[in-house]
Amino acid sequence: MPWPRPPAHIRELIRRGAEIALNPPREWLDELDEATLAGESRRAVAADPVLNAATRQTNRSNLLFWAAANVGDPGAPVPANVGAATLATARDLVRRGLDEATLDSYRVGQGVALRLWIRIAFTLTSDTEELRQLLDVTCRSISTFVDDTVAAIAARMEREREELTRGTHAERREITTLLVEGAPIGRAHAEARLGYALTPTHTAAVIWSDDPDADLSALDRAADDLATGADRPLVVLASAATRWVWLHTAPDVDRARAACAATPGVHIALGSPAPGVDGFRRSHLQALATQRMLARLSSPQQVATHDDVELVALVTGDREGADQFVQRVLGRLETAPPDLTEAVRAFLAEQCNASRAAQRLYTHRNTLLRRLARADRLLPRPLADNALEVGVALEVARWRGRPRP
């Protein structure tokens, strides 16, 4: 059917509305993100930090793509949004073993976008006939835009699936997935296919980036930085922006932290070392749990080991409850300067021994005592009466991002 071209005054209304949509309020974007990441079919996407971030980025990309097109040529057909970020998401979905059912998030997003657009439309005119014409054209435009974008992504996913099933990365991912799931696969067969011995002790890592503009070669360099000596890590391409890694030797965590500091978009989550096939599986699951915790807390920390965060991961399963716990226990100390919170952390880590804590911080004992006294005045309850809860709250505060308003 020919595309209807609205009259000039309706086109001008569409242009004005599209300019508003180019600068959406934060709560609109939050509503869009919440809706597109909810639901059973999108559970795997919401739980994966890379796919979660990519979905949020795609939501903004689609909204701004459609709005910009209607600022430039109001009411005209909008082509499918098949930019590099959108197609990278399609690759990641396939490499996670997900299918086109996950694309229903686009339909959910379409419903939210329509509601938001109708809100805008009602601010543009009070003339019912103008409003009818405006909505007739733009609702059709949004629907067609989403249909065409979903069709393009589905086609890309099919091509990606065909390529992966023919490649060595697909075989590595398939075998490691079987091992992690505890499937009855022969050890010798798996070792031959992976080129990696399964009997020794393993430390697993998940290396990823949630920055859509990140240099993905930095992920491979980070995997190399973890290896020590002649140990050759097993690296599996879990997605375009995620690497699963296993090592036989203890990783060089300090070197990894230094390397990540120079590459802000890269994050590393490490499991605990454990032997054999069971250790291969357990360490990987711990690394995944650590990754999810860092993402859940919007943590500023780039590198974390499961041993470091096991307690925090358990405490922060309920993010809102954890925030309330920190606020209740720390009071004004929550937003105090870092020298005060680090003084308390070191004091507690050294079993409340001020001399050892001062040595740990490379400071004078009297300086430490003054900082502890200042910190005590900020706490709702004295540190001596509440050391355990204060220690836990400080650990949560250390690993999470900025406190929620």
TL;DR of this structure?
This protein has 405 residues and is of the alpha+beta class. The protein is 63% helix and 8% strand.
Structure, described:
It is a single chain. The protein folds into 3 domains: 8-164, Globin-like, CATH 1.10.490; 168-309, Alpha-Beta Plaits (2-Layer Sandwich); 318-399, Arc Repressor Mutant, subunit A. Helices cover 63% and strands 8% of the residues. It contains 18 helices and 6 strands. It has helices spanning 8-21, 26-36, 43-47, 49-72, 84-95, 104-124, 128-164, 168-180, 187-194, 217-226, 253-261, 276-296, 306-315, 319-330, 338-349, 354-361, 365-378, 387-399; strands at residues 201-209, 234-239, 242-247, 266-270, 274-275, 303-305. Strands 1, 2, 3, 4, 5 and 6 form a 6-stranded mixed β-sheet that branches. The two termini are 50 Å apart.
**How many structural units, i.e. domains?**
3
Globally, the shape reads flat
**Major sheet summary line:** 6 strands, mixed
Ranges with pLDDT <50 over ≥5 residues? none
- N-to-C terminal Cα separation, in Å? 50 Å
Q: What fraction of residues sit in β-strands?
A: 5-15%
Rg, please? 26 Å
Strand tally, please? Answer: 6
Organism: Umezawaea tangerina
Domain CdaR GGDEF-like: 189-293
InterPro entries: CdaR-like_regulators (IPR051448), CdaR_GGDEF (IPR041522), PucR_C-HTH_dom (IPR025736), PucR_C-HTH_sf (IPR042070)
Protein name: DNA-binding PucR family transcriptional regulator
